[in-house]
Amino acid sequence: MKTKLISLLFLIVAFNLNAQQSTKVIITGSRFTYPLVERWIAEYKKVNPEVTFKINPRGGPDTDSANLVINAHELSEKEIKPGFKVINVNRYILLTVANSKSDFAKQYGATGIKDKELKKLFFEKWDPFEGLDEGTKKKDKKTHTTVLYTREQIACAPTTFARHYGFEQKDLIGKGIAGDDKHLIYAVLKDTNGITYNNLGLIYDLKTRKVKDGLTVIPEDLNGNGKLDEEENFYATLDNVVSKLEEKNYSEVVTGNVNFSFPQDVAANKELYDFINWILKDGVKLNHEFGFIDQEKSDLDKQLVILNAPTNK
Q: Cα(79)–Cα(72) distance, rounded to whole angstroms?
């Protein structure tokens, strides 16, 4: 009798433990998405308080236990864990930004810069002031300095930025900065010659919706006519940028998809699937607040179909 009672207690404990584990969503991946992810969690828990969430930052302990991996670059087959599927959730934009006191910001902040010039700047050791002082006497010529900053570690944003121009992250020119994307902003703010690339949520103040003090967005000369036309100058506020780039897909602007990678087994991860379904239907309404761009409606519908497709055996 005692043995049966112990066995019964063991089964009850095991059942409760499995139930607790099944309600835990463990998240890791691209750090610049975390402010939006944390808001998603907070809103979701208002109606689903029983679900437990944990964010394990990439590079920290226990990241292998994550059942929701967030990436902001296109995944190759070898990057997808066996038994996992992938869907796109939203999009993000990468802009070139410089210290407002830099010669580069003063020269190109108002006139714009061509896409092919950005390619030369970040990958071909191009001097953006080459020929600027032609015809000027030697004693009157100015010395212009530019300092590029990029990520030291392999990461999503620099991978996406480099691939836009037909390169890989290792080909980016510049001083490698340890840490994550926000440390590129810190480096540029400290260096009056600094230039880098970054996402909207770090370039703009999410409260004021304006470019952060000390930074200048370098607009792109999208039609390549050598000047910044009025319709190309839409960078004054975060909401202007989001609205313009959702209205029209400019091939010159660096854009990447944020994707989720997660187990295919729906039954064993019901709470996770419920959460992702909620994100695609309701959570995406928060994209703009954090500087992310919506997918087109047809693409969003396609992701819902992929998400809820039967498990591959």
A: 13
Lowest mean pLDDT, pick from 57-71, 113-127, 256-270: 57-71
22 with 75, same domain? yes
The predicted pLDDT at position 82 comes to 92
User: Which pLDDT band, with edges at 50, 70 and 90, does 23 fall under?
Assistant: low
8 Å CB contact between 169 and 144: no
The boundaries of the domain holding residue 76 are 2-90+258-307
Same domain, 22 and 160: no
What CATH number is given to the structural domain containing 221? 3.40.190.10
pTM of the model: 0.89
Identify the residue whose tokens are 């954090």.
290
